[in-house]
Amino acid sequence: MGIKTLSELNPRNSKVILRCDLNVPIKDGVIGDPGRIIASLSTIKKLLEANCSIVIIAHLGRPKGEKKKDLSLAPVAEKLSELLKREVKFSTEITGVIKQALDLKPGEILMLENIRFESYETSKDESERIKLATELATYGDLYIGDGFGAVHRKHASVYELANLLPHAAGDLISAEVKVLEQLTKNPSRPYGVVLGGAKVSDKIGVISNLLDKANVIAIGGGMVFTFLAAQGKEIGKSLVEKDLIETVKELLIRAEKLGVKFLLPTDIVVAKEFLSDSEGTIVASDKIPSDQMGLDIGPESAESFASEIKLCKTVFWNGPMGVFEFSNFAQGTKVIAQALTQVEGIAVVGGGDSAAAVRKLGFEDKDFGYISTGGGASLEYLEGKELPGLVALK
Ligand code: ADP
Ligand code: MG
Questions:
Q1: Which of 31, 40, 280, 301 is 20 to 30 A distant from 258 in Cα terms?
Q2: How many other CB atoms are there within 10 angstroms of residue 213's CB atom?
């Protein structure tokens, strides 16, 4: 990828602007999975050790340029302070002459409020993004990009700002890219890819791009039903993206020509309603009752996916196998997660919900080869796309 690393730039006594991905789930001011904050600590600690001051820029959710109280980064600043055992100052102002930023001393940290409260951050108009980036650039002498989860976005603080200052990638981005390179350049074989989650449209590009690279592709989650529909099966009230049925049909034909093992579930756990206390029934995947919906892959499918996964030397998994948020439909995801922990080689978990799912199901990060902090970003990388936030750090 040729991005500049933190140690190559080797900042010392500098005023650093650090772009992080601190987009964690927050409910009523309480942080759910703090994974992304923890993943940002390495770079922050190194910068502090090098006697730098740090202005942290990050986003939360999609406020669309409006100040929304429930999307404030204030609880994140508090959590970061707790993890670092050190004060983290917070500025509700993002632009203008922020005295707190100008007065920042070596070893001090200032986090700015959700950068997406500024509409120019995500503007389609380049000149607006440059305008915001130019203001942000006054807060420091160096730019470190470490917000992996946002590198697929051409946003002011991800792309334009990096171009305005001497820059490098932080440790998190370097680690993420290293893993993604392992998945795309000469992966150890067999190479298995497991995809689930709600929507085929999110993942179709990845399936297509990995079709001639992977040896095994297993599909679960809500997107299974567009595949089953493409095979002419009854899918009842299950999720389906009708406009993608033709694309999926072509994909299945290509998979067969390429000789990749393409695994679809043979049994499905169905329910009448999408409710947390719905009871599941196991049916064959060609016997889904017309008044029911599929909410998890069945036990037979989970076992057969798992036994294929365990034989692989490289595995990439993105997207839960079922509605893991409901305990009756979490079993498929659990069996697959378990299989990934047994892989002799590298097993990578990507995607926000997938990472949250494995933690919720009681697995630990160290059980896996790597848990990526970026869903969309890793998927776009694996689709073979250029990621603006990485291009900017070259
Ligand atoms: P990730 O964030 O890991 O990339 P996605 O966002 O693509 O994953 O998908 C996660 C969501 O998919 C979860 O909220 C889960 O409930 C949902 N999901 C999985 N299987 C089904 C299903 N059969 N029907 C409806 N939703 C599903
Ligand atoms: Mg998701």
A1: 301
A2: 19
Does an H or E element contain 186, and which?
Answer: none
Find, among 325, 321, 315, the residue nearest to 361 by Cα.
325
How remote is the CA of residue 190 from the centroid of ligand 1, in Å? 26
Closest atom of ligand 1 relative to the 376 alpha carbon: 4
Residue of minimum CA distance from atom 21 in ligand 1:
222
In this predicted structure, what is the pLDDT of residue 51?
98
Looking at residues 59-76, what average pLDDT do you find?
96
> What's the total number of domains in the chain?
2
Coil, strand or helix at 382: helix
Same structural domain, 12 and 152: yes
Q: 390 lies in a domain?
A: no
Where residue 1 falls among pLDDT bands split at 50, 70, 90? Answer: low
Pick from 272, 323, 327, 329 the residue to mutate for probing ligand 1's pocket: most ligand atoms within 8 Å of its CB: 323
Residue 354 alpha carbon, nearest atom of ligand 1: 3
Q: Taking residues 87-99, what's their average pLDDT?
A: 94
Q: Which of 148, 172, 196 is the last residue of a domain?
A: 172
Q: Does pTM top 0.70 for this prediction?
A: yes
Residue nearest to atom 9 of ligand 1 (CA): 197
Average pLDDT over residues 208-227: 96
Question: Are residue 257 and residue 354 in the same domain, yes or no?
Answer: yes
> Residue 267 — φ and ψ, nearest 5°?
-135, 155
Nearest-atom number in ligand 1 for the CA of 220 is 20
Structure tokens at 252: 């299945």
Active site residues: 36, 199, 352, 376
Does 392 score more than 80 pLDDT? yes
Mean pLDDT, the chain, rounded, equals 96
Between the CA of 354 and the centroid of ligand 1 the distance, in Å, is: 8
**In sequence order, what DSSP letters do the residues of 205-225 get, joined into one string?**
HHHHHHTTT-SEEEE-STTHH
- How close is the Cα of 268 to the center of ligand 1, in Å? 15
State pLDDT tens for residues 263-304.
999 999 999 999 999 999 999 999 999 999 999 999 999 999
